[in-house]
Amino acid sequence: MTTFDDRQRAFEAKFARDEEMAFRVTARRNRLLGQWAAAQMGLTPAETDAYAKSVVQADFEEAGDEDVVRKLLGDLTAAGVETDDATVRRALDEQTVEARRQLMEAQ
User: For 25, which DSSP code?
Assistant: First the structure.
């Protein structure tokens, strides 16, 4: 039974690592998205930092990315930036790749 127990513990440890990495990638991606949107809106560096944090917090409202997309679209539109859903989703995809790259380099 010890081989089975060892294998089970290994799978559980891998699952935990994978979930932690997914969470970190999502949080980093949201921060990068906030910085991207802040640049579009012409915010100052202090405002950019605060806005990026608010985008990270927005992701905790509901499961999935819709809450983040909704926040970005609303804020960009309110700031008078011409954008659409496809542009925000493209930025989301690009920042996901960048966040994953940054975290892989940090390891």
Answer: H
Q: Residues, the chain, total?
A: 107
User: Do the domain assignments include residue 22?
Assistant: no
Q: Is 82 domain-assigned?
A: yes
Q: What is the pLDDT along the chain (107 residues), one digit of tens a residue?
A: 688 888 899 999 999 998 999 999 999 999 999 999 999 999 999 999 999 999 999 888 888 889 999 999 999 999 999 999 999 999 999 999 999 999 989 87
Q: Domain for residue 52, yes or no?
A: yes
Three-class secondary structure of residue 76 per DSSP: helix
**65, two tokens:** 């990315």
- The closest alpha carbon to 70, from 51, 44, 89, 94, belongs to 89
Q: Give me the number of domains the chain comprises.
A: 1
Q: What is the pTM of this model?
A: 0.85
Cα–Cα separations (whole angstroms), residue 31 to 24, 35, 49: 11, 6, 9
CA neighbours within 13 Å on the CB side: how many for 41? 22
Residue 50 tokens, joined: 């605060």
